[in-house]
TrEMBL record:
Annotated catalysed reactions: L-histidyl-[protein] + phosphoenolpyruvate = N(pros)-phospho-L-histidyl-[protein] + pyruvate
Membrane-spanning intervals of the chain: none
Entry GO MF terms: kinase activity; metal ion binding; phosphoenolpyruvate-protein phosphotransferase activity
List of residues binding Mg(2+): E447, D471
High-level lineage: Bacteria, Pseudomonadati, Planctomycetota, Planctomycetia, Pirellulales
Name recorded for this polypeptide: Phosphoenolpyruvate-protein phosphotransferase
Length: 594
């Protein structure tokens, strides 16, 4: 959804208000850094007067190279498929060498001193937007043709000079079509202050990373990148799921005030660091942190975490052309174990799909990756790789209080097979005389309905449980959590999801098995009273969420929370649940928006 405010004072046009899906709270104001679906970042860069001649020559060389490339493609296609199909490339050649386009690009470089990259991005993006606004499949195809030419020119202009996200050296808001796991792994939290994507939904990988970085984020906005250029000022409202392009002064002033309020609240929350997450009636809640990199241990420590409740290990595998060796695993795991100084660290084994692993062949028929070869299934199918990781975790257990956790367990057979591979790894280390914790606790994620239904049997095999709500929600409600078209159906507030969580907690209690929650749901203060009322006493959240969740815990009693849970059990829709929880939280914190 977008709204345009006519007449707003802006160099680039009227203010636009875009609606997306809020996945990480907070407000950010800053300079846009554009990353389209080919990975190009085109900031608004100016060239010096004395460099205009060379920049024009560089543009001409790019056009000539792109023309030769298209002509080769046309010749090959004409030979193999005929002139009729090759006509597509003939149209591309006409556009590439259109006299008016060439004049417009040269004028932008000469008079406005824009770089050739920015000129190409701006001019062709404008043309594509016009075609996108027209009805009909033919017009949509013409927009795609223009984007194809734009990307071809940018490839030749940027060459090997393309910078990576990890090398950003000034504060920016990243606006992207989407981010791959390896790209999100390269985000520099020191400079990436906010994140927006055209696609995706709550619980998507991008959402999880943004929350982990503690930056405002909105996903599933729809096509908007052609409406904004690098370097322009953008506002991200991660509380309401709003994006403002070309904001006017009134809107900027209002959101600058919100940013200041955020900073004031953050200062107040810092005072809770060394205080326990203890309810008003004296019940201690264990607050753990979720991390992806060893460096995040410091963030947990700074916010007073009682340990690590989820160490996502899969980022060791991303962006590599080979499997990480055992020593790379061991170095990362042992570093975290040592730096937690005896506090517990729950390490989850590989939780990726085969489509994300460069070293493995792509599945032949992976039309629905979330129901396919991923997580523990992938590990059990590639046992040599799995054994390497397990050996490293076992070795690291000699350096701290480590617990091992298997993800996406859906059957008893999977859990038993995983434990057999672990037993083999233990035997290997014993024979080699390598120290490890022989009594290391071994648990499992509760992420699929079958795990909840069979939990009485799993309790005989698992030392502990951790509820992963991100997957549990999508499998319970049959909603692809990365699909913006069904994103409205993906919600932790759905009564069916809450019933599953309730069942899991009560079963774990009945069999005297520790149970925690490590999904995004427990990092949202909206659900804290409900989860405490259901019976959870251990919550694992992103480091940035620890202070706010602790604040709620220290402001309510268990009796109060149990009343909230009883009321929620009687509600029938997610909307009713959310409305009720907002009302209850606003009674504790009047500043909370209802």
């Amino acid at each position: 959804m977008r709204q345009r405010t006519a007449g707003a004072p802006s160099n680039e046009g009227a203010m636009e208000r875009l609606q997306g899906i809020a996945v990480s709270p907070g407000v950010a104001i800053g300079e846009a850094l554009i990353l389209d679906n080919e990975g190009f970042r085109i900031p608004r860069r100016f060239v010096g007067r004395d460099a205009v001649g060379e920049e024009l020559a560089r543009l001409n060389r790019a056009i000539e190279a792109a023309t030769a490339e298209v002509d080769r493609n046309r010749g090959r296609v004409a030979k193999e498929l005929g002139d009729e199909v090759a006509a597509i490339f003939s149209a591309h050649l006409q556009m590439l060498n259109d006299r008016r386009l060439r004049q417009e690009l040269e004028e932008m470089i000469r008079t406005r001193h824009y770089s050739p990259e920015y000129s190409v991005s701006r001019a062709l993006g404008k043309y594509a937007k016009v075609f996108q606004s027209l009805d009909g499949e033919y017009m949509a195809e013409r927009a795609n043709d223009i984007f194809d030419i734009q990307k071809r020119l940018l490839r030749h202009l940027l060459g090997t000079a393309r910078q990576e996200l990890a090398h950003v050296t000034s504060p920016v808001l990243v606006l992207a079509h989407n981010l791959t796991p390896s790209e999100t792994a390269n985000l520099n939290p020191q400079f990436v202050m906010g994140l927006v994507t055209e696609v995706g939904g709550p619980g998507s990988h991008t959402a999880i990373v943004a929350e982990g970085l503690g930056i405002p984020a909105v996903v599933g906005v729809g096509n908007f990148l052609t409406d904004v250029s690098g370097g322009e000022t953008v506002i991200i409202d991660g509380d309401q799921g709003l994006i403002f392009l070309h904001p006017d002064e009134e809107t900027l002033a209002r959101y600058r005030h919100e940013v200041e309020e955020q900073r004031s609240l953050a200062v107040k929350l810092e005072t809770l660091r060394d205080l326990p997450a203890e309810t008003t009636d004296g019940v201690r809640i264990t607050m753990l942190g979720n991390i992806e990199f060893p460096a995040e241990v410091q963030q947990c420590d700074e916010r007073g975490a009682d340990g690590i409740g989820l160490y996502r290990t899969e980022f060791l595998y991303l962006g590599r052309d080979d499997d990480p060796p055992e020593e790379a695993h061991f170095a990362a795991y042992s570093e975290v174990a040592r730096e937690m100084h005896g506090k517990p660290v729950v390490m989850r084994t590989l939780d990726l799909g085969a489509d994300k692993m460069r070293t493995l062949p792509d599945p032949e028929d992976e039309r629905n990756p979330f129901l396919g070869l991923r997580s523990i299934r992938l590990a059990l199918k590639n046992r040599d790789m799995f054994r390497v990781q397990l050996r490293a975790i076992l070795r690291a257990s000699a350096h701290g209080q480590i617990k091992l956790m298997f993800p996406l367990i859906s059957t008893m057979l999977e859990l038993r097979q995983a434990k057999m591979v672990l037993a083999d790894a233990m035997e290997d280390l014993e024979e080699a005389g390598i120290p490890f914790d022989r009594n290391m606790p071994v648990g499992m994620m509760v992420e699929v309905p079958s795990a909840v239904i069979m939990m009485d049997r799993f309790a005989e095999e698992a030392d502990f449980f951790s509820i992963g709500t991100n997957d549990l929600i999508q499998y319970c409600l049959a909603v692809d959590r990365s699909n913006k078209d069904v994103a409205s159906l993906y919600t932790a507030a759905d009564p069916a999801v809450i019933r599953l969580i309730d069942m899991a907690v009560q079963t774990a209690k009945r069999f005297d098995r520790p149970i925690s929650m490590c999904g995004q749901m427990c990092g949202n203060p909206l659900y804290t009273m409900l989860l405490l009322g259901i019976g959870l006493r251990t919550l694992s959240v992103t480091p940035s969420a620890i202070p706010e969740v602790k604040r709620v815990c220290r402001s309510v009693s268990i009796e109060q929370c149990e009343r909230v849970a009883d009321q929620v059990r009687g509600l029938e829709t997610a909307r009713d649940v959310k409305t009720f929880l907002k009302e209850e939280l606003s009674k504790v914190f009047p500043e909370f928006p209802v």
